[in-house]
Predict the 3D structure of the following.
Amino acid sequence: MRGRAIVGLVSIAVLAVLLYLLRDVILPFVAGIILAYLLDPLADRLEKIGLGRLAASLVILALSVVALVVALLLVVPLAANQAAALIGSAPGMVSRLQGILAERAGPLLERLGGANVLSDLQSSVGSLAGQAGTWLLAFLTSLWSGSQALVSIVSLLVVTPVVAFYILVDWDRMIATLDTWVPPRHRPVVRRLGREIDGAVTGFIRGQTLVCVILGTFYAVGLWSVGLNFGGLIGMIAGLLTFIPYVGTLTGFLLAMGVALVQFWPGSDWLHLGLTMGVFLVGQFLEGNILSPKLVGGSVGLHPVWLMFALLAAGSLFGFVGLLLAVPVAASMAVVIRYGIERYLDSRIYHGGDPPLIVDASISDKA
């Protein structure tokens, strides 16, 4: 038992080292495998209506290419133009926010701490905004350099669909082959863990993706309807970052309220400020009470803190490849840890050398 555990740990360590060393070239392959995994249920449904596995994979590949082309032609240019305009106007907005702070809170701050408090606070806000921008730029640069140092965007867009197609065609055969490699006496446990991992990963990724799309669309349309500058871009950013618990809503809210203060405050337009805040309040209500419970559910078992740590740690170590693998790895580790705790609570170590007390279900039901 101890020898198998050592072999398993060594194998995981070797895999992690190889992933780190090859992180610059494996992005299209990792993305293709994940895409094939997510699309396998769709291929199974197409098979049930009479299509062969090859035909089902071709249909899925064609639809994916069409969706990608539409996104590249319509969504990406619009988002890029909005992002460039927002970045270009950011220094002016920060200066305007400092002016609003001086106008509204200046007298109170001077009474509380003297004449230098306001200037110190304005300097701190400016330096904090500059540091935040520098950190964000450095983080995005590290993701770009870590994932695209040797692999261009063209190769990513070309190789990923091809890898996904071949993996999707052979998915069922690969799973069956892996099942035969497991020793027969361990297959029930491995299959159980595999089903739980599959449920956690697919439940979170598919459900959270739908939540991100719905919330991003809601925020973008809502902020655009309010008349907020860059409302569509801010809404898409908030929806995309909803994948990280609490980060999406908080980031979108701060960006939207900052832009709203600069845009609507000169005329004390409380209505538009309130509507901007209301968009995020309604979005949070929808996410917490309708979307997440219905689409993600409570059975996934991924704690928000654990998920945030996994995303940040994997992104820092492995770049964009790490972000793709963070959720599957975190979900798998959570399932294995829960299984280990379950075995420990049933072991002689936990019960002080005595076998665990087993109560007959039929007796307990009668009682």
Q: What stands out?
A: Residues 261 and 267 are 10 Å apart (CA to CA). Residues 146-151, 358-367 have pLDDT under 50 and may be disordered.
